Amino acid sequence: MTRVLVVGGRKAGQCRTTGQLEPRGYELLRLPDLPLPTPLVHVDVIIFALPAGEGDRIAEACARLPRPGGPMTLVLAETADPNEAARMLDAGADDCLLAPHNPREVVARVRALLRRRERNHARRPATRCEFDGHRLDAVNLLVRAPSGAEVGITPLQHRLLSALLARPGEVVSREHLMAQVLGEDSDSFDRAIDVHVSRLKKRLARVSGAELITAYRGVGYRLEVQEVTS
Predict the structure, then answer these.
(1) How far apart are CA 49 and CA 11, in angstroms?
(2) Residue 175: which H helix or E strand, with range?
(3) What are the residue ranges in the chain where pLDDT is below 70?
(4) Final residue of a domain: which of 91, 121, 151?
(5) What is the pLDDT of residue 11?
């Protein structure tokens, strides 16, 4: 499940704004104030919702986050001044939303950040890797099981499997998979990704003898593997 850490956000209005994420399947974590915990484990997006006057501390926190590979960041500025947004972006924030904050726009911005994150992960899909004894051969579009049995996969299924392999053991949202496999601007229905996952799941089951992909209804899918090596 996608995890979103909200730093601050203790005001009633801010709680309502960020609280719209949980009903949409995101796991919401809260931290009353900076600094961020070290190490920061399994967080996909950080939302900074601190009071006005905390811009310097937010900028410092953004600058300290690991790049690339760290969580995406969204600053909910307590001002309508565009100069503050420019300052936050220059400091390393991925996005900054000026006041007032519309809850639906916050959700949309989080989704956009996650799509951008998935695109970054997808730029170099796995060409050859192993997962729990299985071997993915992207050159020949084959998956080879520990028994030696092989099954062919399509280029789309390769992109889908690569997206799951990038986050082994984690639930990858349907939105992330759609953005990577079908394209961010695809007009396909959400059901399309379910069909593609189902087909990949059946192909893998032919050679593995087990169900390697678990569905989490309304949320996403998880590849049930313990280890992935290049």
Answers:
(1) 9
(2) helix 174-181
(3) 10-15, 67-69, 120-127, 182-191
(4) 121
(5) 64
Statement to judge: residues 132 and 88 lie in one domain? no
Phi, psi of 174, rounded to the nearest 5 degrees: -60, -35
CATH number of the CATH domain containing 205: 1.10.10.10
Chain segment 143-170, per-residue pLDDT in tens: 999 999 999 988 778 888 988 988 888 8
The model's pLDDT over 48-67, given as tens digits with 9 standing for 90+, comes to 998 888 889 998 898 888 76
CA 147, CA 133: separation in Å to the nearest integer? 9
Token pair of 152 as six digits? 């062919």
Pairwise CA distance, residues 208 & 144, whole Å: 9
Q: Give dist(CA 75, CA 79) in Å, integer.
A: 11
Asked if 133 and 223 sit in the same domain, the reply is yes
The pTM of this model reads: 0.54
Sign of the CA dihedral running 33, 121, 109, 17: negative
